[in-house]
């Protein structure tokens, strides 16, 4: 997968000169069936069960997936998955300079991931939230495109008849093929988010460095004031 630093700048109020922005979100892209053999000497008893998987995905303005984490069960919180991802470590080390991600309030506010204001107190913050929501819609459309190209990832296609590990590999392979198709311009109209497929935003459950949270808060306030204060 290509790194976030190679993503195209967004045509959005969030994309300022020399600053790269990408969008981060998660979704359950598949169910998978697993079977366990419970005995060696006796005829094996096959017990089948279905499990959800949760993927955290980063995309750019052209629906290209620039990062994907596919290895956690569906019960895992978005913020936990992101904190244990390679892209988080690279952002924490400052590999992308002034670049940052946009994420919903399930993610912890940090200097490298901008989240909405939970309770906007003025017009610039409300305008920030509005632009944030419109821009973040790109990731929902990317999920729609991915599932339109690969119906095995859509819940209407049922469950993948593979173990979780194999199912995770299938999800990543579909993301790679999606990027190839997108870059080569293979026709597929960007899909609007399917209301039946959209997942409820997870409640924020943030832990960690308060200093980083304060730095993120200052940066978010700066963005709201500098780029959205003119709308007041």
Short description:
The chain has 232 residues and is α/β, with parallel strands linked by helices. The protein has helices at residues 78-83, 86-92, 123-149, 164-183, 210-228; strands at 21-37, 46-59, 65-73, 100-102, 113-114. Transposase-derived protein that may have nuclease activity. Does not have transposase activity.
Strand order of the largest sheet: 3-2-1-4-5
Radius of gyration, whole Å? 19 Å
Task: Please state the overall shape, judged from the principal axes of the Cα atoms.
Answer: globular
The pLDDT mean sits at 75
The main β sheet shows up as: 5 strands, mixed
Can you give the helix content as a percent range? 25-40%
**Separation of the first and last Cα atoms:** 40 Å
Note the quaternary state here. Answer: single chain
Written as H for each helix and E for each strand, in order along the chain, the element string is EEEHHEEHHH
Q: Mind explaining what this structure looks like?
A:
With 232 residues, the chain is α/β, with parallel strands linked by helices. Helices cover 34% and strands 19% of the residues. It has helices at residues 78-83, 86-92, 123-149, 164-183, 210-228; strands at 21-37, 46-59, 65-73, 100-102, 113-114. Helix 3 crosses helix 5. It is globular, with a radius of gyration of 19 Å.
Note the main attributes of this structure.
globular; 5 strands; five-stranded mixed beta sheet; 34% helix; 232 residues; hydrolase activity; Putative nuclease HARBI1; cytoplasm; metal ion binding; alpha/beta; HARBI1-like
């Amino acid at each position: 997968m290509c790194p976030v630093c190679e993503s195209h700048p967004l045509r959005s109020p969030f994309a300022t000169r020399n600053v790269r922005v990408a969008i981060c979100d998660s979704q359950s892209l598949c169910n998978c069936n697993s079977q366990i053999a419970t005995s060696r000497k006796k005829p094996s008893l096959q017990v089948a069960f279905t499990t959800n998987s949760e993927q955290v995905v980063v995309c750019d303005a052209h629906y290209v997936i620039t990062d994907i984490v596919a290895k956690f069960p569906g019960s895992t919180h978005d913020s936990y998955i992101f904190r244990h991802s390679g892209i988080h470590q690279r952002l924490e080390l400052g590999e992308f300079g002034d670049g940052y991600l946009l994420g919903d309030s399930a993610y912890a506010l940090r200097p490298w991931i901008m989240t909405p204001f939970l309770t906007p107190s003025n017009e610039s913050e409300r305008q920030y939230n509005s632009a944030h929501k419109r821009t973040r819609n790109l990731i929902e459309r990317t999920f729609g495109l991915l599932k339109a190209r690969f119906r095995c990832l859509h819940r209407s296609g049922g469950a993948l008849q593979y173990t979780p590990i194999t199912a995770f590999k299938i999800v990543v392979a579909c993301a790679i093929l999606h990027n190839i198709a997108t870059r080569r311009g293979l026709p597929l109209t960007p899909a609007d988010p399917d209301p039946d497929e959209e997942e409820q935003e997870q409640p924020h459950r943030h832990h960690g460095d308060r200093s980083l949270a304060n730095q993120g808060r200052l940066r978010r306030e700066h963005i709201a004031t500098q780029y959205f204060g003119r709308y007041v």
